[in-house]
Write the C-alpha cells for this entry.
Amino acid sequence: MILSKKNTFDLIIIGGGLAGCSAAYYLTQGGMKVALIEMRSICSGASGRNGGQVIQMEGRDELDKNKIIKRNSISGKNKLILETLNDLLECDIEFLKIGSLDVTFSKREEYIIKNVIKLQKEVGDNNIEYLNPAEVEELCPVFGSNLHGAKIRRDDGTINPFKMTYGYAFMAVRNGLEIYTYTKVKSLIFKKQKVVGVKTDKGDFYSKYGVINATNAWSKKIIDDYPIIPCKILGFVTEQLPIIPVIPMEFNYKDVAVYGSSQKDGNILIGGAPYNYPDDMNGHLNEDVYYEDFIKYGKIFSVCWPKIKGVFLIRAWAGAVGFTPDSFPLVGPTMYENFFLDAGFTNGNSWCPICGKLIAEYILNDGKTSIPIDILNPERFRGIDFDWPRAYNYTVLHNYIAEKMLNQNKKVKI
Amino acid sequence: MEVSEDEIRTAVRKGATTVDAVKRVTMAGMGLCQSKTCYTIIARIINEETGIDLSKLEPMRIRIPVRPLKVKNLNIDLKRKD
C-alpha cells in the first residue's frame, strides 16, 4: 500500500485481522475516509491461523438460557452475512455448509451433550440434533470404537479465512481505505478525555470521528483497562489428501479442548490448547509451538481419528485469541470519547463480520444499530477488579471467572 | 494446488511485500514442501516488484516438523516436568 501524504482521516482502525478489515469495509461503504493500521501484514494474527470453522454455538458449558438466545441471535445473523459475501466482496470465501459436530468419547460426555441439546431446543434452537455413533461415523468416517454420540448443526461449516479477510480488505481499499502495514501503534493520542489519533513508529495519524481498537489478543497493548485476555491456541495440518470429510468439530480429549476440520484442498487441521501453559500473558502472544505440543496432538489425532493416523503432519503453528469474562466480545463505544472497541473474539469467523457491520452502523447512524449491542458494551465490566492469574490457560481463566462471579458484590450486566 | 506467477505479482502489487504475506493472500507455500520449492521464486518476485533487497526481506516463518511426520509415529510418552 503506497504511503499517503495525508495523515488525517475520519476514522482510524488499529488491527488488520477479520475484525478490523470487516469494520473497514462497512465504514468505507458508508462513505468514511478510513486508515487501517496493522503492525505486521493483513490477516497475520488469529484471523490467519484458524481452521476456517463457522460454528454458531461452540462449547458445552453454556447453561444460561438467556445467554444462549443472545449468542445465537448474533452468530445466527452472522451466517446470513456470510451467504452474501461472495457477491459483496466479489471473491469466493469458500463457504461450505457441511455442518459442525461436537463429538464425545465417553458416556459422561454423551450425557452432557444430550443435556446441552435439550437446553438449546428449549430456547427455540431447532437446528441441532443428536447423532448416535453409527450416524456420526457415516458422515465422518475417521473415528474408532471409542466414539460416542455427537451434537450436529447442519448449517454450520467452513470458510477460507484468508479469502474472507482479504476479501473485506481489498473491497474496502476499492472504497478508499488506506492500509498501513508494518506500522506499530505506540500509543493513543488524547486531547483531554477525547481520543484524536494514534502515535506510531512511522508517524502520527489523526482522526475526526474516532479510533477503533480491533487488535483482539493485543488489545491490552493499546489500552489496558478492558478485560480482553490473550489465549494461545495451536494448529497442526496434514498433507493434502483426497477429501476425507472431517466436518468442523470440537471435542474434549482428557479435558483438553480440541478443534479440527478438513480444509478445501484436502489437508486436515487439528488444534487446541498448548501442552504447557505459558508463564504469563505475553507468553500467549509469542506464537511458538514446541516439540511436546507436536507429540501431544499427534497422540490426540491417533486416538480420536484412528482410521487416518497414517497421514503425514506437515506444519505446526500457534496464534492467540481474545478471551473475555462472559465470552461475548467488546464492541461499541467506550468511556473515552471517540474511542471504540471491536475485540475479544474466540470464534471470529462466526462473530467478526457481524460485529464489523454493527460497529460501522453505530458510528455511521449516530448510535443506531440494526440489532441491539448492549450485551457487547465494552464498559460492562467497569468497576470489577480482575486479578488475572499470571500463568493460565483457557480452563484456568474460566475457573477464575466462575469463582470471581460467585464472589461478586456487583452484578455483571449481560 | 498451483499458484500462478500472475497471482503472486498481483498480491505483491496489492501490498503483500513479505513472503508470509504473499502466502496468506495466495496460499503459496502451504503445500507438501512448505515453500522449500517456491520460497526463492516468491522472494525474487517481491524484489522485482518492490525493489526490496533480498538480504533485507523478512524471512518466512519456518515451522516444525522439518520433514513430514506420520501421525502414528508420534506415539511417544512425554514425562511431565513436575
Notes: The two ends of chain B are 45 Å apart (CA to CA). DSSP finds three helices and one strand in chain B. Chain B has a mean pLDDT of 90. Residues 5 and 34 of chain B are 17 Å apart (CA to CA).
